[in-house]
């Protein structure tokens, strides 16, 4: 096991991690490089042929490594293996509630599946072949978020992914952190779209924008309807919670991304900052129907002062 402390300066964190050092556990303390750099560093230190990533805060079932390594042993053509996962909301009091059970994945995923809008595999549930990871260039720092989607797209050009049809991984969502994670969610969705764009370009030309512009490549991504509608949806979330300043920022970004029916409509609503009480309640009722139960939590404002 290799544990990477990617930039925490807390002495308590360092001491706690160092307690676990042993022949079987390597602990690395480094300056912050972001997830791609930390993952690549850990993988470079790994001695085995298979890599299983485990995200901080999540939980792997005791038989996860055994089940996934068996699947890779049984099918040498597979580049990696995922599994069924469960999303758990961890409340402030420590209690957990199931948010979603992701048990509708096919037994096999090919490159075409990863080009679809849905990302079937989360970053922490996969075990993959180290050789394939190295061959495609590893995680790329241009993807501060969605680095897993970018990696799966490049790896799947060399072979399929299998899915162990058992729940082996719990993704934990902490209620206290949901409000502050909206910026990350926005950037993750935008970079996930960009990863698909890069994959399509690589199929056609043999290279993509990251090969040309490195970390600055996302600046040159295509503007899409999907990205515009996602930004508009996040603007709805802020409107529901009466944060008109943040809603206006996202509504304007949605229009700049692409003019769509949704981006225009949400932009118009966001500009309505002073309305009568009756109209305000009517708008709130409309927004309540448009956003999911999970979105009801008030997000942190986008403006940092």
UniProtKB/TrEMBL annotation:
- What Pfam families does this protein map onto? Glycos_transf_2
The source's domain of life comes to: Bacteria
Q: Start and end of every Glycosyltransferase 2-like domain?
A: 1-136
PANTHER family linked to this entry: GLYCOSYLTRANSFERASE, GLYCOSYLTRANSFERASE 2-LIKE DOMAIN-CONTAINING PROTEIN
Query: What protein name does the entry list?
Result: Glycosyltransferase 2-like domain-containing protein
Protein species of origin: Salinisphaera orenii YIM 95161
């Amino acid at each position: 096991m290799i544990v990477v402390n990617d930039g925490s300066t807390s002495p308590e964190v360092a001491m706690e991690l160092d307690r676990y050092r042993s022949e079987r556990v390597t602990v690395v303390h480094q300056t912050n490089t972001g997830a791609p750099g930390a993952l690549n560093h850990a993988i470079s230190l790994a001695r085995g042929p298979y890599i299983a990533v485990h995200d901080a805060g999540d939980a792997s079932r005791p038989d996860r490594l055994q089940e996934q390594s068996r699947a890779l042993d049984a099918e040498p053509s597979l580049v990696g293996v995922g599994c069924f996962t469960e999303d758990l909301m961890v409340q402030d009091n420590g209690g957990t509630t199931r948010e979603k059970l992701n048990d509708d994945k096919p037994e096999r995923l090919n490159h075409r599946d990863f080009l679809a809008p849905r990302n079937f595999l989360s970053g922490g549930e996969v075990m993959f072949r180290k050789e394939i990871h190295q061959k495609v260039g590893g995680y790329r720092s241009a993807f501060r978020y969605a680095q897993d989607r970018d990696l799966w797209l490049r790896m799947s050009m060399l072979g399929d992914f299998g899915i162990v049809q058992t729940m082996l991984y719990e993704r934990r969502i902490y209620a206290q952190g949901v409000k502050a994670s909206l910026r990350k969610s926005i950037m993750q969705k935008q970079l996930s779209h960009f990863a698909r764009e890069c994959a399509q370009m690589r199929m056609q030309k043999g290279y993509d924008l990251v090969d040309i512009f490195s970390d600055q490549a996302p600046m040159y991504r295509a503007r899409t309807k999907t990205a515009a509608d996602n930004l508009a949806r996040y603007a709805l979330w802020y409107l529901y919670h009466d944060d008109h300043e943040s809603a206006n920022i996202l509504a304007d970004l949605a229009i700049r991304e692409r003019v769509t029916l949704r981006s225009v409509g949400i932009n118009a609503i966001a500009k309505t900052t002073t309305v009568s009480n009756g109209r305000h309640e009517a708008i709130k009722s409309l927004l309540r129907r448009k956003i999911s139960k999970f979105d009801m939590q008030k997000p942190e404002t986008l403006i940092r002062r």
